[in-house]
Amino acid sequence: MKFLPRQWRIRLMLALAVVGPGFITANVDNDAGGIATYSVAGAQFGYSLLWSMVPITLALVIIQEMSSRMGAVTGKGLSDLIREEFGLRATFLLMIALFVTNFFNIVAEFAGVASSFQLFGIPKFVVVPLSALIVWAVVVHGTYSVVEKVFLSASAFYVAYIVSGVLAHPDWRAAALSTVTRPESAGFRNYGYLSMIIGLAGTTIAPWMQFYLQASIVEKGVTAKQYNASRLDVIIGCVFAAVVAWFIVVACAATLHSIGKYDIETGADAAMALRPLAGEWAYLLFAAGLFNASLFAASILPISTAYAVCEGLGLESGLDKRFDEAPAFYWLYTALIVFGAGVVLVPRFPLFRVMVMSQVANGILLPFVLIFVLLLINDRELMGKYTNSRWYNVVSWFTVGTMIALTIAMLAAQARG
Amino acid sequence: MSVVALSELLGATVRDATGSVRGRVREIAVEPQDHPTRIAFLIVKTADGERILPVTALKTAGVTVRAHTDVSGWDKYTPSDGVLLLKRDLLDQQIIDVHGRKVVRVNDVELQTTPVNSHIMLDVVSVDVGARGAIRRLSKGLVPQFTLRALLERIPPRVIPWQFVDLLETDPARRVKLKIAYRGLAQLHPADIADIVEDLPPAQREAVFETIDEEVAAETLEELDPDVKVAIVESLDKDRVADIVREMDPDAAADLLGDLPEEQSGEILQEMEPEERQEVTQLLEFGEHTAAGRMTTEFIAVAEHGTVDDAIEALKRFEGSREALATIYLTGSGQKLTGAVTLVRIATSSLATPLSQISEPYIACAPDTPEEEVAALFDKYNLITLPVVDEHDRLAGIITADDVITMLRHRG
User: Fold this and answer.
1) CA of B78, closest CA in chain A: separation in Å?
2) Domain B181-285 belongs to what topology?
3) pLDDT digits (tens, 9 = 90+) for A5-63
4) Fold classification of B301-411 (topology level)
5) What b/e sequence results for A290-306 when a residue is b if at least 16 CB atoms lie within 10 Å of its CB, and e otherwise?
6) Chain B residue numbers touching A74 (CB-CB < 8 A)
7) pTM (2 decimals)?
């Protein structure tokens, strides 16, 4: 980097020092459930849903930015803040909901691990326990900086989806055009189309992300002064995650949709269907990407849940503590991994149903979490001069309001079957 | 005398002298300037705004609060910085449990009522950080009062007596008014203080370091994780940092300055005494991972022709760290290292014994010896201290075993 002027080099190093939490969080978001949803969206509606990527990414950036700002300014986790400002009872109920919701998510991730290896004919009884062990070992034996490097590498592996998107030989012009043009209003009268949009938004913004992102900003020791670089981290992460999602939709649109194969349900289905259409490499990359994404999310969810719940309830937590010093923390963490992975091993396990269940649980919890985030970020005693500006509040309340409306619509749709 | 929980008092109905309900308890206030534990007044939410009900006007305090004055005599409440509000400042907040040496979250606060003459006194006795307080609050209003009390009796309490509680307050002015001085915390071992500080959010860390004694702050800083150490030093103001660094051993000071950005370490150096500045600058010039980077320049050296008596005098005058006391080094002309005498030999020899007689063979290393080799020497020769000598055999400093242990732990 010698060719850069000194000041630029310093600035670049400062920026790199805080890169991580935002990038990782946005990428973990493309987990087993996310890949399934994007695949189905591409297979059923071709390029016609690509426009929704732009507003969804904006919403993601706005919500993530608030979480990371809160972490940098207060140095406290989201569950800590909720406890301090809203008391024990609200926190307790929220933590139970978070625990249950994240449990469903963890099951869905291990299901993703299982299904990706079933593509290669490797039974889940081998892969799932092995993955659970890896997840446990990485987190328990790694320090924050080691774990972060592992996670950043896992994030880079999402490029697999971009490559498999290219291998699918899409109609680039059509795809690009439908990303930037306003959708035709006729589409909104189609019930399936509308519920797909809701599904896309719902899978992109999940409640656990707010807890995880804020906690890792705090753990990384990002301060209010370094905050500008952190915001960049969030934006880059969200954009990269959106590009990956875009390529998944495009890959499925170019192949499955164009021959009229609409009936896929999961990421593994999509990989399988891609094989005869886009070739062996696209299939392999798609399947490997699914495994990577599922394992990645499965590594993050149990630990972040254990931290959030213990901190909110004032129980000892932290990997630097011994088992007898922080029993609740270790029990929660272990139980989430063991049962999360164990459930998947049950014979004739209804994989698709659990994925839907995890989305529903996310949907129920999300409005509460987002409202807490907005109330906290506007608390002047807490945030000082870092509260939302007026226009930012308008935008974020609008975003949160839309997200809540979409989620309620999704739940209503689920209830009707 | 009986104990009542803060969560039971909050929301309790308040009856005045006439016996009619006038409002509900909203807050409970201590005025630390007047008395460290005594409740000064309750804030009652009445139909006519928030009113102050002094504790001296209370007949009972429990599920219902009875006063022997009339509602018209209760003053209007205006917020003030100098009062500690138990619900706002304590409930659900983090505190330092000095006795248990950790940061904990408050689930409830226990108050003691004592009858005096015609009224009662209320004192904070302890904070509840266990399941009992949590369950009491979670089931409040959902389970009948006496069932709840019976249930709670069965749960073993986890309470911290009030004298072992250190409050966290980030506003310096308010800290003074509330008389928060971290006295309990400062009495702990610096290594324990460091563990506690690492568990706190940045603003609270800063608060602790702004408040505690410089000497304790200096020792604590040495024990902290390098990242946390740098973050704290960068957040404190320049004069405060200079005061703290002045209290540090030269090797620790050099370690700290080496971790800071150049601009800031330069500023701190400027604030130091010339002699100390020179020592620290010298240490800074050596690579961090060499013998010189790990050594301290505070050691005991006595002239080679001296006696045990001279050595004891030198021990008495020595102000450096205790780890450096294990061996007394003998130097000849021009500070050349010529011998080493262990503390044990000094203690077991008569005062007039010449030191050269009880001197033992010693191992020394060069300033640029890599730290791995230093560790190997400690291991091989079972050393407690290791002298570092320059190319002319002059004693430059010593490395102590505790530094080696730290180094080995951090490498893994």
Assistant:
1) 18
2) MgtE N-terminal fold (1.25.60)
3) 555 555 555 555 556 788 888 888 888 888 888 888 888 888 888 888 888 899 899 99
4) CBS-domain (3.10.580)
5) bbbbbbbbbbbbbbbbb
6) 201, 203
7) 0.81
